[in-house]
Amino acid sequence: MGFQHTLYLKRFANEVRSKDESHDLPDYLDGKKYIWQCGARDFVSTVRYFGTKVGDYIYEFTPHQVAHILAALMTEVMEHYEVYDKAYEDYRDNVKYNEEAKADKLCADSYAILRTMDKEMDETSHHYYDEFQDSYRMFRIVKGLSAIALTMKEDDVLVWEAG
Predict the structure, then answer these.
(1) Which stretch of DSSP H or E encloses residue 129?
(2) Cβ-Cβ contacts under 8 Å for 130 (sequence gap 6 or more)
(3) How far apart are the first and last CA of the chain?
């Protein structure tokens, strides 16, 4: 059995959590009333740190706690984005719009840009990224968590099932 994360607001629990024995999540509500992501088993240590444990692999978050975990994740995402953005600017300025350069110089410049980006990425934080194993999982959780945070009311509670 795989590991999965399911995030939803407590006020939507009756809609999200089916009452039948299959325990299946309603697909038509994915991305609307809940966010589901498989994998990222190691990320549960971060969920545990920021949330409040209320059951086996079930954590609750106040809007304040959601803001904290989202800020931690976004700080790392922004560090990575800055490296990628700098590399893209370098590529754009020295390769993409350099119409006078010959192909071999453009290839060499592209390679140098990628090598520089790789070196800079090695120097950035990968704490959360490594917990997800794959970037697409991190992106899905960050996007989903952001969307949920935008709809949260002061008295809402986010339920995060990680197991």
Answers:
(1) helix 127-132
(2) 42
(3) 10
Q: What pTM value is reported for the model?
A: 0.84
**Amino acid (one-letter) located at 27:** D
CA distance 70 to 73: 5
Q: Is the pLDDT of residue 104 over 70?
A: yes
Measured between alpha carbons, how far is residue 81 from residues 27, 74, 75 in Å?
A: 31, 10, 10
Residues sharing a CB contact under 8 Å with residue 153, sequence separation 6 or more, in sequence order = 63
pLDDT-based confidence at 110, cuts 50/70/90? Answer: very high
pLDDT tops 60 at residue 20: no
Q: Which residue has the tokens 């994915």?
A: 30
Neighbours of 67 (CB within 10 A): 14
